[in-house]
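We modelled the chain as a single entity of 162 amino acids. Its sequence is:
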Amino acid sequence: MVNSQQLPAQEPLEPTASLLWPLWDLSAPIVQGFGDNAEFYKRFGQNGHNGIDIAVAMQPVKAMSDGVIRFAGNGAEEPLMGNAAGECILLVHPDGLQSGYAHLHSIFVEAGNTVKAGDVIAISGNTGATTGYHLHAEVLGYPLDLKNGYFGRIDPLPLLGM
């Protein structure tokens, strides 16, 4: 569900990595990493999990980097996200990378909005194909290689400086 409210007021934030902003409270654990559970994801034509799952419930979600919102809404309406993503956001960054945020409870942006690194763009949730509340975060490579075994996704942790 897209919330038409304005973005909450933000303090200027300094990125801690050269490319992407840490989008969650780092005390929240990653419960499924990129590439994990290869056997489970084989049935979906993937080599493993295509993002990272962070154990947060109903927490603010921050933009990883500056960019323009490509899509905000139900993933069934965006082929790069899909029905399993539930309520989700796809953000295009100036370098061509895209970041995806899935299973959201509330969305504070709309397609075409410009955001800065660290802006709160959503609240994490439990929509789409989930087993509980969490944030699924992913990065789509540039150029996009949909046949890389992860539907174009790349491991976001090195880009986050982790």
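As a brief sanity check on the tokenised model: The longest strand covers residues 67-74. Confidence is low (pLDDT under 50) at residues 1-19.
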